[in-house]
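Sequence decides. Consider this:

===
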Amino acid sequence: MAGDLLDGRIVVVGASLAGLRAAETLREKGFRGSLTVVGDEPYPPYDRPPLSKQVLLGKAPADTTALPMRRDPDADWRLGVRAIGVDPLEKRVMLADGESLPYDRLLITTGTRARPWPNQEEAALDGVFTLRTRDEAGGLAERLAAGPKRVLVIGAGFTGSEIASACRERGLDVTVAERGPAPLVGALGGTLSKLAAVMQRNHGVDLRCGVTVTALRGDGSGRFTGADLSDGSRVDADVCVVALGAVRNVEWLAESGLAAGPRGITCDAGCRAFDMYGIVTDDVFVAGDVSRFPHPLFGYQLLSLEHWGNAVAQAEVAAHNMVSPGPLRRPHLALPTFWSTQFGLNIKSVGVPTFSDQVVIAQGSLEARRLAMVYGYQGRVTAAVTVDMAKSLDYYKHLIETAAPFPPPPGAADRAIAADIPIPSNVPDPKGLSHGPTVALTGHLPDRRLTLVQPYG
């Protein structure tokens, strides 16, 4: 049986970080069959974190972000062509160019795309951008380098905040509009979001919270000139970046019978996709941002997340399980980790901050802008976020993994726990925000009604 798993045809849909690491791991595990990687962009897999950092700052061209290969996966790369469907009975992936690819096992790593501005006519104005792809980053960096008078950023999640930080570092005037009460509040809760708001304003950002953008305006030539806000004010700007979060690339699976919906493709802890009736498949696997998987540390709720480290770890687990017999398969249990650099601060997160009811500042202080905040839920530690104190994170990671009691005991890495009293974490409902968390608990329920798809009729 194990020998059979090392042969055959594997198709990976998604020439992403997860897709590349999975392809490499398949070969490392001894897979000797045919390996095809499909990607809708014309480029080999590239790294996305630099796009909102070094590329926007002009420190690196967008075309220098290609991911290094740990080894040549000896794959047939089908780049610049979109997958448009899967036939699970015939075991074929259909491509937009009319070709179909047979598979014995399929790995889906299609990730996410930037959520567009809802009004298509306004979104098409010259000067309106989203930021997710290499081409989008290159175009936006070019426009920022030209020295616009003002940049409007819609949404103050991590991506929007990093864009605003890059603008200020370039010396550009920037306005940030956020529907919620503060930047990053959807990801980090109310206490740390106050620090984020102070930092943005201290760095000269015109931060507008509790407002929405009601319309984007253009001139007679189709150039973006500004926006109307829900409080009746108007922002005059010549560049607009829409940072309203991510959309999971699952539409192409609508007729596949898989459990694919707005929050991703549901899979088990071994990365095997569920069909829409909750039956686990044994030949379709999922990894990276497009996946939705259970985690025992968070009540076996299904996690959806957009983290670099998760894409790598989950891809490696998926690849291992694709070529291993049942008893040798392993679960994907890695803790979500995330980092961001903005306005001179280094923010690192481990666990799920939104899975919390209380927080405590365990080290440092908001005033010092150097701290470790620990999150708890029903009396145990579930997450930690550090600001310019990354060396402490491993300690808190261990507390999360061992379900340590909250508030945490003394003994952190470099100093005693401060005598702060836990306060409510104030995690808001994402529906009231322009941005969502980069890691979200999505409950136990499927995304869609069974009556919507009947592929086996």
